[in-house]
Amino acid sequence: MQLDRGRHELKGDGVVIPVEPQVFTLLVHLLENRDRVVSKEELLDSIWGTRFVTESTLTSRIKAARRAVGDDGRRQWIIRTVHGVGYRLVAEAVEVEPNEDRVGAGPSQGPAGNQEIGFCWSPDGVCIARATHGQGPPLVKAANWLTHLDYDWQSPVWRHWLEALGRRYQVIRYDERGCGLSDWDVDDFSLDTWVQDLETVVGDVGVDRFPLLGISQGAAVAIAYAVRHPERVSHLILYGSYARGWLANGGDERRHEQAQLLIDLARLGWGRRSPAFRQVFSSAFMPEGTRQQWQDFDELQRRSTSPDNAARFLQAFFELDVTELADQVRTPTLVLHSRGDQVWPFALGRQLAARIPASRFVPLESSNHLILEDEPAWPQFLSEIERFLST
C-alpha cells in the first residue's frame, strides 16, 4: 500500500484506490503520527479545523479509511482503535523518495506543473477541490460528471482540453461534490447545491467577472449561476448540454425506461473489477473512440466516483430542468453540440439554444459527447470559443 501525499493518491498493488479528501487527510495524519495514539479531538481539529462536526462523522471516515487500506479488523490490523482515547496506525510504514513510485506517470509531469489545487467549503460543509492552471484572462468551468483534478492530466479524455484552454486562459475548475478530489460522502445532489459549490469556488479564487463554460449537465449549473449573477458572467459557453432531463416532466416513456436502465447499470456494475458495465458508458460517450480510449475512459470512471454516487448523479442529471431559467439568460451565449451525440442528442442542444435569447448555435461534426483530440471537431470547437470570447 502506498500513500502519495504529493499526488493525493492511495495505491494498492500499483492501482489507485479512490478515497475522498477527508479520508486521505485522516490517513496522512495517522501516518505522520504513527508513533503514538492520535486522539479523536486532534483528528477532528486536523481534518475539519474550526468547523463543527459530530463524532459519528469521524467514525464514518475511520471506517472508510479502513476499507481503503484493507483493514477488516480480523485478519490484520492497520488502524487500531484505542477505546476511550483515539486511533493509531499500527502497520509498518517505509518512506520513499519523492517521485520514486511515479516512473512512467507521463503527461501529468509536464503541463500539470503549473496547476495549483486547493480546497474550500460549501455552505453545507462539503469540501470542494478546486484548481487553477494556465495563463491569460480567467475562464471558469462549472463542474461536470467524471473529473479528477489530478488524474485528468494523465487521462487522454481530458488532457487535451486542459492543455488547449490553459494556453489561452487561466482555467479555474473544480471537482463536483461526490467526485474526484471533492468529498464523496455527501447528502445533497441538487441544482441548488451545485450552484452554491460554484459560488464557493468563485469566491475562494477571487475572480470578479469571467466567461463561464458548462459541459453536459454542468451547463445547467452555468445557466443557473448566470441568471443569479449576471454581473459576474461576461460570456456563457455551453457544450453537449440540455434544458430538461429524461425524467423531468414532459419526457416520453421510452426515455424514462432508458434513464432508469442506466441508473441501475451504474449502481450494480460500476464498482466491479470487470469493465463490462462501465464500457456501456464509454461507448456512449465516445462511440468513435478506439479500444484504448474506451479503456482510458473506463479508468477515469473508476477513479472519479463510487457506484452509489454514479447512480445518484445519473438520477439527478435525468431530473434536471432549467427550461424556465434558460428563458431568463441575458448573458451572450454560445451553444455547441455534436451532431451524433449519443448521451444528450443533438436535438436537445438545439432546443436549449432556442430558449436562450440571442444565443448562437454551432453544430459540430462528431458523434462523441466528449470531443477527442484527433477529430476535426476539436480545432473547430476551440476556434469558435476563441472567436466568441474576443467579441
Give a short overview.
With 391 residues, the chain is an alpha/beta fold. The chain has helices spanning 21-32, 40-48, 55-69, 159-168, 191-205, 218-228, 253-269, 278-285, 291-304, 307-319, 323-327, 346-355, 377-389; strands at residues 2-4, 9-12, 15-16, 38-39, 79-82, 86-89, 116-121, 127-133, 138-141, 170-174, 210-215, 233-239, 333-338, 360-364.
Topology:
Layout: E1 2-4, E2 9-12, E3 15-16, H1 21-32, E4 38-39, H2 40-48, H3 55-69, E5 79-82, E6 86-89, E7 116-121, E8 127-133, E9 138-141, H4 159-168, E10 170-174, H5 191-205, E11 210-215, H6 218-228, E12 233-239, H7 253-269, H8 278-285, H9 291-304, H10 307-319, H11 323-327, E13 333-338, H12 346-355, E14 360-364, H13 377-389
Parallel strand pairs: 9-10, 9-11, 11-12, 12-13, 13-14
Antiparallel strand pairs: 1-2, 2-3, 4-6, 5-6, 7-8, 8-10
Helix pairs in contact: 1-2, 1-3, 5-6, 7-10, 8-9
Gyration radius, rounded: 21 Å
Which CATH class of the largest domain? Alpha Beta
> What's the total count of β strands?
14
Please report the distance between the alpha carbons of the first and last residues.
52 Å
- Could you name the ranges where pLDDT drops below 50 across 5 or more consecutive residues? 98-110
Strand order of the largest sheet: 7-8-10-9-11-12-13-14
Strand content: 15-25%
CATH architecture of the largest domain: 3-Layer(aba) Sandwich
CATH superfamily of the largest domain: Alpha/Beta hydrolase fold, catalytic domain
Q: Summarize the main sheet.
A: 8 strands, mixed
Q: Indicate the structural class.
A: alpha/beta
Average pLDDT across residues? 86
Shape: globular
CATH topology of the largest domain: Rossmann fold
Number of H- or I-type helical stretches = 13
Q: What is the string of helix and strand elements?
A: EEEHEHHEEEEEHEHEHEHHHHHEHEH
Overall domain count:
2
Instruction: Name the helicity range.
Output: 25-40%
